[in-house]
Amino acid sequence: MRRFAITASFVLFFLLPLIFSAGTSNLTPALVSEVNFTLRQSGLVEATGGSMSSLEVNVSIPGNYPYQTASYDGRVVFDEYGNSIATIHEPSPPNPYRFDVISRGTTRERITTSLPTSYQIPQEYSIYLRPSNEIQSDDSEISRLAATVTANSTDDWDKIVRLTKFVNSYVTYDKSLVGQEKDARWVLENRRGVCVEFANLYAAMARSQGIPTRIITGYAASPDGSWQAHAWAESYVGEWVPVDPTWLEAGHLDGTHIQLSRFPNKVYEAQAYALTTPGGKLKLTWINSFGGTAGEMSITGLKQNNASPNIELKIGTNETQIGNGTIVYAILNGSDYRIIELALAPCKSAGMYPVELLDEQTQIVATRPGVQEIVVWRIRSDPALSKGYIWTCPLILNSPYFENKEVTLTLTPQNIGTVPFNAWLSRNSVLVGESQTIYYEVKTGAPGERIGIIADSGVFEFPATRGIHTFNFTPKKTGLNRVLIYSSKGGAQELTFTVSREPSLRIKALTTQGAVIQGKPFTVFLSIENSKPSVESALVTVSFNGENKTARASIEGIYTINFTFVPSSEGLSNLSAKISGESSSDDYFQTVEVKPQPSVQVSNINYAFVGTGTTVILNLTGSGKPLLLNVSIGGRKIPAQFGEVSIETTPGEKLLQLEWLDEAGNYYNSSIHLDVPATPPPATPTPSPSPTNAPVCGTLHVLLAFLLVAVVHLSEKSA
Fold it and tell me: What are the DSSP calls for 340-369, one per residue?
């Protein structure tokens, strides 16, 4: 008999053959707050070409998390990543053997209401930064592209948003790739895939920017309401933030996401082990499968939030002359971190659009708690519209999160007058914290008319008085900024400029606290200087001999951060540091000498006898550079060094102690139990000396007898 193992991949992304016990018609996944489910995973294990015994089947099942509760009546174990595994053991299974794993649970939407500005990445999360065969975060092209996408990001949340948006728009969903599980490099080159490919590319790009990211597998409803097996991601930025690049969700994850397992790289696998007769092979297949995935899931309950009314839709003017344009803008105040799509639908009449959108119909906005966001569309009426009519054009705002909002634009052939204006900027680029000035010239004003300005800081309106005017503001967002100027009679002008960060961070020093000793913890101090008056967030990584430790820090002035390492070997080792800020980066490299631990041994012990006392004579040897070496016995302590050391004591049982420090101040000691003799051992008789040399030899023998020592070989016991 031989042990045989078979693994069946969790092949994702075909539609689930669901059994609905609760109505899910009119399902809007983005609004789902809670789902109750029953999942049945069924399969067959068969030994082909022989028989089997001692069968064990492991199946990943939904686990328990702050946002999900689940139960299973059988035996459950947990893998190294905390995933729940249903384990079935059959000593003498039939061939084939059918298994049924039924779990029940409730999953809830994930809402991110706060994120820390500073944090340290736990060492156990470093596995989610490493490259792999599926997630090549060390690929130069992936790293370069990710750096470009996230350039001038405000913080880590901004990086997550930019990467999610990029992957969502860059990769085309292609069902023909179901089950192929292409790696991130392939996805980058081919720009196609299903959710695993979306997740792999996102994870590779995020890891390349120092953001720990892991792959999540399970089930979810797609935006059109159809259910399917699914994969998404989580990124660590002080806490784990859910990211679904396929369905363009981040920060907020809708309640249809039923989590099965989480891994650094691979998606879920079911495993079977058994003893088989010679020539036998195990085969695992799913029953009622879809694309290879076990398959009966019942949705037994579902809660859906109401669409939020908390969004405003406004228009620059309610009436303008045919051929003119204006702006439409939405104002929303964020209550949490999430990505929201907003789509403006223009009116349509007899197959034609009286109004043309000059910006993308669907725009994406990322919200933050307590921060106002403004989304703007420029529109222009068709100058070829019939002048024999007055056109009324409704424009409707659609969003999966919000109630539909509508504004109406009236297009008239009549000359209702205009407010001619022109605007320009004082500079095409500014640094973070600097103000920008908008100049606008009104050529012919009119009482009651207005000039409006929309910037990231808000919407501002002023009387349209003739002359040149200025408006000053400090932009909040880095990268490309746009400003819209409009009049209450129609007409709009767009101005763009960039906000960048002058390199402000640099490494001042990378030091260790004292000497570095093999096997002993030592602390690395990294001193960083921020030359700007404002606080800047940066990702800080210190590496020692291939071990990385990372933290997110808010740096103001001179900032010092420390990390602790334990060297495993002596000799020269590499120590490096890297900082990646919002506008600048720096790195530093040096070598560190790791010294061996100093050791002290007693190679032999002799005794000399003077009166009633005994002198213990030690020969100390060892290695390294012990400091402040002391020898003590019987309450007496003396300084010592390698070589011969003598210390007086009284006879009897004594504890000989050695104490010393290394160059870093680490303490060492060892002790030996001694039975100190009171008199020398009996001397061996010697012939009498001749008269000629009696005085000399006699004196010499007396001296030798007096100094006679007993050599005792002892083994040292180290503390």
Answer: EEEEEEPP-BTTB-SEEESS-SEEEEEE-T
- For the four alpha carbons of 546, 547, 552 and 553, in that order, the dihedral sign comes to negative
Residue for token pair 């949490």 = 336
Phi first, then psi, for residue 17 (nearest 5°) are -80, 85
User: Both tokens of residue 699?
Assistant: 């004196």
Q: What is the pLDDT of residues 644-685, one digit of tens each?
A: 999 999 899 999 999 999 999 999 999 999 999 988 776 555
Strand partners, 261: 217
Residue type, 128: Y
**Residue 572 shares a structural domain with residue 478:** no
| Listed residue (406, 404, 402) closest to 307, CA to CA | 402
Question: Is 296 found in the same domain as 209?
Answer: yes
32 plus 44 within the same structural domain: yes
Q: Are residues 158 and 279 in the same domain?
A: yes
Q: How far apart are CA 690 and CA 702, in angstroms?
A: 15
CB of 198 closer than 8 Å to CB of 166: no
Q: Which residues partner with 480 through β-bridges?
A: 498
| 535-566 confidence digits (pLDDT tens) | 888 899 999 998 999 999 999 889 999 999 99
- Quick one: which of 561, 540, 559, 542 has its CA closest to 551? 540
- Pick the last residue of a domain from 497, 527, 552: 497
Q: 541, 569, 595 — which closes off a domain?
A: 595
- CA dihedral 606→610→613→618, nearest 10 degrees, is -20
Whether residue 619 sits in one domain with residue 575: no
Q: How far apart, in whole angstroms, are the C-alpha atoms of residue 129 and residue 122?
A: 11
> In which order are the strands placed within the sheet that holds 227-236?
249-250, 240-244, 227-236, 213-221, 258-263
d(CA 91, CA 275): 10
- The Cα 23–Cα 302 span in angstroms is 8
Same domain, 169 and 223: yes
Q: Own/partner pairs for 461-466, CB < 8 Å, 24+ apart? A: 464/419, 464/421, 464/488, 466/442
Q: What angle do CA 541, 547, 553 make, to 5 degrees?
A: 20
In this structure, what token pair is assigned to residue 593? 């000498």
Distance CA 465, CA 445 (A): 5
pLDDT tens, position by position, 310-348: 999 999 999 999 999 999 999 999 999 999 999 999 988
DSSP 693: G
Contact by Cβ (8 Å): 372, 331: yes
Q: 8 and 123 share a domain?
A: yes
Report the CATH number at residue 88.
3.10.620.30
CATH code at 672? Answer: 2.60.40.10
Name the one residue in this structure whose structure tokens are 């980058």.
188
Amino acid at 120: Q
Q: Are 708 and 683 in contact, with CB atoms under 8 Å apart? A: yes
Cite the beta strand spans of 49-110 per DSSP E. Answer: 52-61, 68-72, 75-78, 84-90, 97-108
Backbone angles phi, psi at 697, to 5 degrees: -65, -35
By CB atoms closer than 10 A (0-12, 13-18, 19+), residue 220 is buried
Burial class (CB in 10 A: 0-12, 13-18, 19+), 47: buried
Q: 146 near 208, Cβ under 8 Å?
A: yes
Q: Does one domain contain both 156 and 15?
A: yes
Domain count, the chain: 4
The domain in which residue 557 lies consists of 505-595
Q: What is the mean pLDDT of residues 362-380?
A: 96
Asked whether the bond before 223 is cis by omega within 30 degrees of 0, the reply is: no
Q: Which pLDDT value is given to residue 623?
A: 93
Contact 371, 334 (CB under 8 A): yes
| Token pair for 167 | 């992957």
Distance CA 591, CA 106 (A): 53
**pLDDT given at position 25:** 55
20 neighbors 301 (Cβ within 8 angstroms): no
